[in-house]
Each structure stands twice: as C-alpha cells, then as structure tokens.
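Box 3.1. Reading complex inputs
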Amino acid sequence: MSSQVHGAQKFDKAKRAETVFSEEAMKTVQTIISHYPPEKIKSALLPVLHVAQAEFGGWLSPETMDYVASVLKIRPVEVFEVASFYTMYNLKPMGKCVLEVCQTSSCWLNGAEDIVKYIEKKLNIKVGETTKDGMFSLKVAECLGSCGTAPMLQCGASYHENLTYEKVDTLLENYRAEGKLKSYTDLDYKNTL
Amino acid sequence: MGRKLLIHNDHVPNIHTLEVYRAHGGYASVEKALKTMQPDQVTDEVKKSGLRGRGGAGFPTGMKWSFLAKPEGVPRYLVCNADESEPGTFKDRYLMEKIPHALIEGMITSSFALGAKTSYIYIRGEYFYVARIVEAAIAEAYAAGWLGKNILGTDFSHDCYVQVGGGAYICGEETALLESLEGKRGNPRIKPPFPAVAGLWGCPTVVNNVETIAAVVPIVNMGGEEYAKIGVGKSTGTKLISASGHINKPGVYEIELGITVEDFIYSDEYCGGIRNGKKLKAVVAGGSSVPILPTELILKTAKGEPRLMTYESLSDGGFSTGTMLGSGGFIAMDEDTSIVKNLFTFSRFYHHESCGQCSPCREGTGWMEKILKKFLDGTANESDVDLLWDIQSKIEGKTICPLGEAAAWPVAAAIRHFKHEFIEIAQKKKFVDISHYDRLNKIRA
C-alpha cells in the first residue's frame, strides 16, 4: 500500500519515515478527532488535511497523505480521493504565499481581471505559476464570498478586499518582507470587511 | 426603517463576545425554550412563524423539522450549512463574523427542539478565519454553561462543533455536505432517503442554513405568530440580502420581506442606486443560479405591478418573466455590462464546481463554457445560440442534485432576455473584451 504512486508524484519511503506531526500539530489533530464518535474518525479528514498542508510545506505530498491515512486509520486512497476533489489542497509544491484572486461575477464586474493582470505583470508570472524565488504562486479562484467588497484576493487565512493596485503593492511588499509560509490555518489572519 | 431581528446589533462594539451579546438580550431563547417549553412547542412556534429555509430553496423550516425520524436509541443530529458559496452571497459570513453567538444560540435552541445532543457547523474552508471566530464563541459558550452537560440545570445536554470544508461549492447541497462531513468527496446522494431519515452517519439529521438557524432565536423570543406578522403572505419575517455589483452601497442588508425591489435598489437605506450615475441594466436577484432579469422585469412584474422582495413576487410569471429570491445574493449590473461575459463567469463557475457524478452536468457545463468562450473569442456564429439553448435544456431535471438546474437556468435566462446580445456578437457587430479569459482556470494546482 505504501509504495503507491499518487498522481504524478513518486512515493519516497525515506521521506515518508520523516513525516510526523509536531507535538503541537498532533494536539490539534487529536482535538479535531475528539469531535466525532470514536468509530467515525474518518470524518476528521478534511480539517486534518488542512493541518497537514500547513505543517508539511504548504502542499500534500504522497508521503503526507500516506501519513494522514495512518493517523486516521484509513486507506491512503481514501485520503487521495478527498485531497484531489477539493480545491484548497495543493497536490504539488506551491510558493510560500499563494495568491488566490476571485474571478466570479461580482468580482469580475469590479475589475478582478485587472487585478490578475497587474499581479502577473508585477511578479512576472502567469496564473498557475510560481515566482522563481518560490515566494508567490498566483491562482484564480471561484466565488470566495466577498462580493460586496470586490475585487478581492485570499492569501492563506487572510482576505484582502476592496483591492486597488496600491493595496496589491503594499500586501505583496509585506508578504515578501515577512517571508513566511502562509496557510489557511494561520491564527494571525487579516480581514478587511 | 424596516424592522431588524438578526443583525440589529451589528454596530455594537464587541458584540462578538458573549458578555456583550448577553448584555443585549442574548441567549434568552435558550432560557425560554429549556425552562418553559417542550421541544415540540418550539417546533410548533417555528411552524407558526412560516419561516422558510434561507439557504436558497425556501422550504418551510417547521415542516422540515417535523419530518425528522425519531427512532429509539438512535442519535439525531442538527447540521448547520455554512458552506456559503453561491456567487453573490456573503450574508452568512457577515452574520457569523459579526455576531457568532446568534448562530450558536440558534443551534442550541433548535437542537433542543429536535432532540439533538450533538450538532455540527460546516463552514466552507475558505472562511477559515470565520471558523476561528465561531470556535472562539463556542469556547465562551462552553465556559459559561450554555453548551455542555445539563444546560441551565435541565437534563438537556448539547455539544456543538465546527468543521471546515476543503473548497467545493457542491458541499452546499445538503447530502454532499453530509458526505463531506463524513470525510469523503462531496458527491450528492440519491434521495430518498432524505437526511431526515438517513443523514449524518445514517442517522436522522436536519440540515439548515446559518440564517435559518439564527432566525429561530427571534421566533422563540417573540412567538411564531408575531414573527409571521412581518412580511407578506407566505414570505414571513426578515431576510438578509447580500448586495453587490454596480451599486453605490454594496453590503449585507436585513430587509422585511415585502419591500419593493425598486426601493431596495434606489433608496439610501439600502443599495443607494447605481454607481457613477449609470443606468441599471439587469439584476441577478438571488445568487448566480437564479434567472437574470432586465431592469423592466425586475422592477415590475409582467402584469405591471411593482415587484416585491418576496418569494412569491420575485417568482411571479414563472421563469418566462420572473426569477427567484434564492439565497438573497443580489447582483446589480449597469448599462455597460456584457451579459454574455457575465454569463461566461457563471458557466465557468458551474463547470469548475460540477462534482462529475452525472453526465448531463459534468459534460454539459463544460460544453456551455466552451461555447460561451467562442463568443468571447469572436468565433461564435448565430447557430451557437440555439446550441447553447439546446444544451441547457438537456441538463435541467436530469441530475441527482440541483447543480444541474443551477447551471442551466442562468444560461436559459440570459438567452431568453438578452438574445440580441448573443446575436450581435455572432454577427461581429459587437466586440467583447476578451482580455483574460484564456489563461484563467487552467490550473487545478
């Protein structure tokens, strides 16, 4: 089972052996598991995958998925089928800060395309690409529930709303200066509602 | 000023804390229900209130509750649908972010009525920071004894947990949500059985929208009959409307059902009119799935009566001249908007979000996006309009869940009311700004 190849990514046994939650992450995982009846801990899969993605470099490698399966006592394929269904799980390495620009109706009406173009030009990457220094990845996202504060982009747990070019400049500068991996599970989120 | 029951305290500093929420009358419905009422009496009040599901379908909440099977020895669950993903809708986010205890209070009171010892709030993953706010409020509620064992010294005990999703619109469909809550892909289930009989882990389950559950609080406090006095006909009470697009004051507004659409768009109390002095061209009144209407039909019905913000008035005339209240995601577009390109963003959305179980939806949404792209490319011809119509007509009613309809209706309505725009583009009389679409959505990282 553990020698499976997940998608295009090869499975590395040595890397798998090193893949273990930190004590703090494991505590979070145990709390999540406690929310469900003991025989239904598979239910914890989605939230635990978020913890794993934040813990192991911002994406879910085959080794990470295999490890999560062992923690929840389910088969690796049960993890992969979920990880590949939902958009928030990255199945390949990403930049430290993944910029997800909403592109659906209300954001489009308010110039989301211009924001995407501006970031592409500024970072010299296209949608779907990562900057050479591994700092930023640019993605487009479907409706993020920020229609009244459009256009917007999400980076980790933070919502950046009512975007202007100046705001984009500032937030990119700040993220670059910080230089940290941004995850959905971060506690130091910003929101601008 | 219209009456507000849900977000009347949203301006109060620190209303997200238990202390301030309690000081403004919070948790009174729990006290009233647990100390002076039987569970069935709470359900009766909800029935009398005429409350209808606020997530989009508008199904009577009291009736949904009364369908809940109650076999001996089997746990029952209340699940809150906070997977708000319908384009144009952001009201649940606002409510949970500003007044999280309103939802938690509703969860406790509703769970008491349903006999649920455990409840889950399923929040879309992108709203991770909102989940943090709700979790903090839940922790406060536990510490103060509003959750946990023997609440208020009664024999009612209740646990409430938050689960975050992974990013999938389809999980707003209640059976897909339950699959997701069980740690699986969000594939909607075939019904029957309905969740009221076999829901979470096969147990009887009620799934309600955030706003629906929050509305139980004022209903119990004021009584169902009083609540039903607000509104018009079968559209009772208040509704949160998420207003966006080309309006002067986008945001979340609580309205009494029954105000006119014109008042909602143009009065300073609500949207404050169209931005930059432009004229209104079209409105999507209830989230991306509902039919788009041109100005003349959104302001007045085909009979010439003023259109009201109610379930009935908005759907007056059926789909030929009407629309739906839906989730209350109200998107207004000005005269410069390309209806074809806006439709493209919707169709791209539904293609992206189709779970892939049913061929008509999986394939049809992709075809519709491709054909609409031809219009943006400038390579479409007039027969493509008929083809688009044909495809949408073959999705509706042929899928396990309503995502099929949700994808088909916007296409049908755009062609129904704005066919000339498609024709003009096909005849190369008009050019759509193609700027960016070809690079978008290429990746699923």
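In summary: The radius of gyration of chain B is 22 Å.
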